[in-house]
Structures are given as C-alpha cells and as structure tokens.
Amino acid sequence: MARRRDDSPFGRYRDDFPEREFEERVEARRKRTVKSPKSPPDPRKAPGRSEQNRGEHNKAPLLLRILAWGGVILLCFVAGFIGTSRMLKMLESQSLLKTDDRGRNRQELSAALGSERSGAQLDMQKVTLSLFYPKNDALAEQRAEIISRTSEENIQDAIHKLLELSGFFSDETRLRHVFRNVDTVYLDFSGPFISALGAVGAKPSTLFITGVVRTLRDNFPPITKVRFLVDSRITSTGAPVDLTATWQLPRQ
Are 170 and 199 in contact (CB under 8 A)? Predict the structure, then answer.
C-alpha cells in the first residue's frame, strides 16, 4: 500500500528541519571545529621581558660596582707583592739569590763607594810633565805626574807645581784662570803674584817666567806664547819684569 509523502519519516524530519537550516547548522559546526589562527603574543606578557626587568632592577649602582672592582684589583696587587717578597726572602735564605753587592748599612755602603772611587782614580790616565823652575840662578828640570783632564786643567796643575818648586811664592799666590787661543795661553794670577816677584828681584823673576814658557811649550803644543794677567788685568805695576808683553822663547 502506498504511503503518502507526508506520512513518511523523512518527510517529518524534513518538515521539522528544513534543508537550508540543516546545512547552516552543519556549516556552523564545521567552522567551530576549525582552529582559529593564533594572535601575536603581547610583548608586555613575554616571559623574558619580565625576567630582564627584574635583573635591571636588581643591578647594583655603577659607583658601587667600580669600587668593588677596584677593591678586587688592589687585593690582587697586594697579594702579589707580599708573595713576591716572601719568595725573594726564601731564595735569599737558601743562598739561591746572591746579594753580595748590596750594602746592608751605611758603613758597607761608604766602603763600597770608596773602593769604586779609588778604582776609578786608578783607571784614570796619568801624564808625565817636564817642569822647569829657577834654582841656583839657572833653570832646573823635574818630572811630575798628574791626572790627565782637560788641557786647561792640566796647565793649571803644572803652574801650581811650578809655584811650589820655585820656593818664593806664598800660598796666597794662585793661578785663578787659564785661557787658550791657538798658540797663546793667558795665565790670570792673584794679586800676591806681583809682590812675590818684586821681593825676589829681576833675575829670579825672569827665570821663573822663562820656566813657565818652556814648561808650557814642551808639554802643551802648539802653545809657544804666554801672556800674564793679574786679577784679570794686564799690569806690570810693582813687578821687576814687564808683564804687559807677550813672552816666548827664541826659535831653535
């Protein structure tokens, strides 16, 4: 027996659930099952940012960190200095480090300096000079050793020895300065030089001046001429010989 369309169960379902409404509900269910794309994370909620902020808040001030590092460096320096000192003392006590050349007190230091000076004087070059001086109305010759220095200082030492060998000059008669100009030398004596020459007379004075010229010519070439000054001036007042002239020996 044939049934009417309205009597079939499919017909009832279709009446209760229209086809369009059924499709809309299926489509809505399908959309709900599809996962929606993730939204970009909020930078304020990033886990690393909160930890970084907490670290910045927990950092010590810059000045305090500088002082801390300075204290560490100073501690390392002091520790190294103390360690080195103790190591040197230990090596010295075990005779592994020689310190024989180090003075332990003022006496040892003075002795060491004295030995060095004496050794330096021995190492200095010495020269032998031929000195000519008046003796028994003639010129006598004597050899003397002096420590070689500059030419002017060597001339000054030679003249001082001549003053001593002559025997008629006091300790106040000194050679003040020496000046050289090629073959001419200027000898500047102190004031008592003229009075000493006046006391002994013309002949001893002439012999003395001749001895000075010959001593300088034979020992300090190319010197051949001598000028005599008194207190840095050219004068002959009170002297038995002419001190204003240039003295030199005749050519041989």
Answer: no
Residues 6+ apart with CB under 8 A from 65: none
pLDDT in tens, 11-34: 554 445 566 676 777 777 777 765
So where are the chain's domains? 126-230
Cis peptide before 134 (omega within 30 of 0): no
Tell me the average pLDDT across 211-226. 96
Nearest alpha carbon to residue 177 among 220, 244, 233: 233
The two three-digit tokens of residue 237, written as one number? 């007042």
Contact between residue 185 and residue 223 where contact means Cβ atoms under 8 Å apart = yes
Tens-digit pLDDT profile for residues 86-136: 877 777 666 554 444 444 555 665 665 665 555 444 447 899 999 999 999
Question: What CATH number is given for 126-230 in this structure?
Answer: 3.30.300.130
3-state secondary structure 151-204: HHHHHHHHHHHHHHHHCCCCCCCCEEEEEEECCEEEEEECCHHHHHHHHHCHHH
Q: What is the mean pLDDT of residues 184-202?
A: 95
Q: For residue 198, how many C-alpha atoms fall within 13 Å in the half-sphere facing its CB?
A: 9
Pairwise CA distance, residues 47 & 40, whole Å: 14
For the chain, the straight-line distance linking the first and the last C-alpha, in angstroms and rounded, comes to: 184
Q: Which residues contact 191 (CB under 8 A, 6 or more apart)?
A: 230, 231
Query: How open is the CA angle 221-138-172, to the nearest 5 degrees?
Result: 75
Q: Would you say 219 and 158 are in contact if contact means Cβ atoms under 8 Å apart?
A: yes
Extract the tokens encoding 123.
């190492």
